[in-house]
Amino acid sequence: LQQQPPHPQPQHQHQHQHQHQHQPPFQQHDQHHDQLQQPPLGPPPPPPTAQPQGPQTQGETPQKANRLRKACDSCSIRKVKCDESGPPCRACAALDIPCTFERPSRRRGPPNRHAEAIKRRRLEESPHNISGQSTPSSPTHAAQALAALSSHPSHPPISAESICDIQTLDLLVNDFFTYIHPLCPFPHEPSFREAWKRREDYSNRAFLALLSSMVAALVASFPRKPRLHLKAQRRELEFPNHMTLVLKCQKVCAEARGPGYLDSENLSVHDAATSYFLGLSACYTFRWRQCRLYWSECLTIIRALGLHKPTEQNFTRLGMLPAAMGSNGPNVEGNRDDVLDNITLEMGRRIFWTMFVSSKTIHQCGSAFSELVVPPETPSMPYPPLPVEVDDFCIFPGHIEPQPPGLVPMIAGFNANVRIFMSYSPLSTMELAWGVDALVDIDRQKKVLHDSLERCKSAIRDLPPVLVIWPTDNNPFANHSGNELGLDFSNTSYARDPATLNPNTVDATPEDRRRRQYEIQKANIHGSGLCTRSYIVEKYFTLIEAQARSKLQAENADSGLSSEVAAELDGLLSDGASADALDREMSEERESIVKDLLSVLSSIDRVNMEPNADSLTTKIRVVASTLLEVPKSRKGQVAQQAEEYLAAFLDILVKLERVNPGHDDPHNPNDEETELRHWADLREYQLKFAQQGGLSSL
Prior knowledge:
mainly alpha
């Protein structure tokens, strides 16, 4: 047997070390790994069979033992054996999931301190290299720069699977259109579902960003539903807390959008929807700076696209700007008369009015977001019309079909909520002109407040029956298992209604799904009505107290109002009652607010309050705390009797406002368990209030 002499090996090792000194760090790491796999130096052991073996040349490398291929991502996560028949492997093929190898592998053993020291030394020396001690033209540094660029692995393409598995995403998309879409009626549901069925998240980054933001808004608004899905699929360890899923969605959305998305030529209404949902998820997770940024961005996109204007002004005229500035010509963006399709037009209006309602709600709750001010409309700058009151399956790009008879569209409840906040537009105009709670003309200011209150109550009175809060013993829509809504979903007009295509949801029938959506809208509408009425009434009594403190005479107060402004205000007002009659009416209105608040708290179920999230609980908490803080001299009999009930409800609502998760461990589920206990306390007190007689006991 011929054995290889031991003398060439030290020479080969010395040459290997010499090359090792001039190679980049990532190649050094690979060679260290190869050296760990090579046998020790010295003569090899004799083979089991006596076969002649020729001398090994220096260029040849000893053959290594065949190693098994790295397991795919799915098998690696589940810690099961992955066969080598693929890709795809048999397990991924059976589950019909992508067989990917994107999961980074961890190096075993202790850290390589020598390589880490070299990397640390290079990082410390990098500022000196930039300052000019070494030039990029040096061959050594050029090779190192190329090696550093090649050492960075290319980012794998992101898709919907970057959030979670497709089965869970299907459930979350269904939940979004069931629980969140009645409150934020965008995007267009049939179009979105068709794109999702085609899996446009692979090719359309804007669609993936929209999908991620929708899931983030759902989880932040209604965390219990996604948590139930994850537990049913035994994936709660992957997302132990709803905040982890929200942050994952926001990260995927940011990667899908990429830098410079506002400079894109394809900026559309869906980008505005994405920004709104990101702001909504930030609002419900108490990250106010991100909320301001994204909502301001949403409003800016809507204005840049011209969707905040009426139909005849859907573009910006640049007027008499000189031609050198590009104001004239057929290709100027500000002057083009592009005809928008109906889906884009309706979605833009819905987003604008949603931002309008959001800004008014924030202002009513005591916050001042100056970035979100939607100024009152003027004759030269009117608001866009309200969205057409038809469901999404009636809207096509080229035409809009009429709503099927007997079916109340979801947009009817959305528009009713908008009219509640538009009821005090003259009050907003007055405060914008002269300041908040400023004494200018006490009589006219009282009439402005009175007319605003009447318009708000009128918007609530005009609600369709399915959106009215009925007494428990007089509810025509309660305790019916049949089709009490009068819907015939066998009609061909419902062919595009996704409610008829999702029988596997919690709501077994399209009627159940629509009834649940009505209840969610009902909670939001009546919460907005209570908050707006209380806001106007408190403005009225604050004005009276300011007048008493200042001890101004009527003629002195009138001196601050010009005749032109007074005439403009008079055109917005109706012939109201006297001052004493207004005072009595406002006092009675406060008593009515107490009764209506207790009615809302005792009749709306938890599952219908939860999708409204902190928006509803904050509105009701503001109303309840305002009523409790009223001096006893101004409290009526009903308010005094209901003080105990209001205090108990207020205590529960304060607890329901989730603790700021930004300073907590996202993997700690204790906050969610506490929240469930608070919801149980609310339900228990609702039953207790009903057993003690409810409103009839007051």
